[in-house]
From TrEMBL, chains A, B:
Protein name, UniProt field: precorrin-2 dehydrogenase
Single GO term (MF): ferrochelatase activity
Keyword Zinc: no
Catalysis performed (reactions): precorrin-2 + NAD(+) = sirohydrochlorin + NADH + 2 H(+)
InterPro entries cross-referenced by the UniProt entry: Met8-like (IPR028161), Met8_C (IPR028162), NAD(P)-bd_dom_sf (IPR036291), Sirohaem_synthase_central (IPR028281), Sirohaem_synthase_N (IPR006367)
Pathway annotation: Porphyrin-containing compound metabolism; siroheme biosynthesis; sirohydrochlorin from precorrin-2: step 1/1
Enzyme's top EC category: oxidoreductase
EC number: 1.3.1.76
Entry annotated with the keyword Thylakoid: no
């Protein structure tokens, strides 16, 4: 039994990377500088309700802009422990140049079991941030587990350059395939067949190939579902309607004549 | 003032993607099937102390293997509310085919403010998982924000193929640059100069270019720090010692002669 098992080998030293859901939840950001500005944007991109605690005079231009636009709620003073009395606060992000105050806030959060991140103090963080590429529904987060935020940003830029253009839109289109499949095979007992077919689809094409497929291609692909088969990429593209004769939902054999006429 | 500001525009609809720190923290996994196996691996890769609650007979081979290897603690029965009495539990992950039991566990977790994920029930999740590429210190997480886990895995595979080979090792090497820089410029007041130079480095080379650099190249690069300058990639490579004459720490002008001898 000393043989290597077929199961993945544990690679310690990483983080648990997760997509936290903070839509409509309250996030308290303490501080209003450049780091706070980045945190605030991350939270707004995830539809959180953000409150910033910081004297107005210390807000950087981006934070001041978001306050002025009403994108965040602003409390114009330094942090007070009573700021945590609101039991609906889901997360606290601290970015102030005051290690003693930061540690106090961290401890208060831990007493209340509120997830918190104290910028630049790894030992006072339930979680770290990474560098995130965003394109519509697609989010790609790069973490180097402490080897440097600049390095993470470089890798993020590298990845963004490799991605097919318009990747976000393509994901929406591909996502539609699942939705449409559920429409044509809605029954609970269809579940295993649906899953098996979707797996076959994901094995038949690479992702960048799928990005080239149009909504029409997706509809053509769905016609294969009853048979449980998946056409080759060329086969699928070959089903595209000839633009000269407009959309042909079903090839009825009259194609050559109508074009030739 | 109706002009477009220079600040990033908020793109709602995303998640807050974070690198959760669970080293040496207790994670309770309820269930022992295929989904649980994936969750357990994610947690072990982040050095968590994992307890699996599930009847032995229902463990899948991978989970049974990890139990047998002592990689996780096993409680051989169904979940009981008293499993949450341990106040040091940092996270709960549920993957059982029992919606009623799942909802009960979710509510118990929320009463106790324990972050939790109930597989396949988005409304009962503080966070979602994505598809993660791992290579040493590098972790890249792909989320399609609900457009399908298979799609996220496809994109993860696509990205993994684009990455320079041995990327993890390269990140270690590049990370060393920061460490060595701190050694040659350790003073607090050097901070701004260090940061400015590191920024210049990250702007001078792309990440895949940096992956081609050896430790020797990094040492050569560091010689430019006092001047605040950064050489071109070709310039840096040109400093490489001629292997025929061994390592040349400093070019002393005798290079041509020793080679020609």
């Amino acid at each position: 039994m000393a043989e290597k098992p077929e199961f993945p080998v544990v690679q310690g030293g990483g983080s648990l990377i997760i997509a936290w859901q903070i839509r409509d939840k309250k996030v308290l950001v303490v501080g209003g500088g450049e780091v706070a500005a980045g945190r605030i944007l991350h939270c707004l991109n995830a539809d959180a309700r953000v409150t910033v605690v910081s004297p107005l005079a210390r807000l950087n231009p981006e934070v001041a802009y978001r306050v002025a636009q009403g994108q965040v709620t602003h409390i114009d003073r330094n942090f007070q422990p009573s700021d945590l009395d609101d039991s609906s606060i889901a997360m606290v992000l601290v970015a102030v140049d005051d290690p003693a105050a930061s540690t106090t806030i961290w401890k208060l959060c831990k007493e209340r079991r509120i997830p918190a991140n104290i910028a630049d103090v790894p030992s006072e963080c339930d979680f770290y941030f990474g560098s995130v590429h965003r394109d519509g529904p697609l989010q790609i987060m790069v973490s180097t587990n402490g080897k440097g935020p600049r390095l993470a940003a470089m890798i993020r830029r590298f990845i963004a350059k490799q991605l097919p253009s318009d990747a976000g839109r393509a994901i929406e289109t591909i996502g539609q395939l699942r939705v449409k499949l559920r429409q044509i095979a809605p029954r609970q007992e269809d579940g295993p067949k649906r899953m098996a077919w979707m797996t076959k689809v994901s094995e038949a094409y690479s992702w960048d190939e799928m990005c080239d497929l149009s909504e029409e291609d997706m509809d053509n692909l769905l016609r294969y579902y009853p048979s449980g088969k998946v056409p080759s990429l060329d086969g699928l593209k070959g089903m595209r309607a000839n633009p000269e004769v407009g959309q042909l939902d079903v090839f009825d054999g009259s194609f050559g004549f109508s074009v030739g006429a």
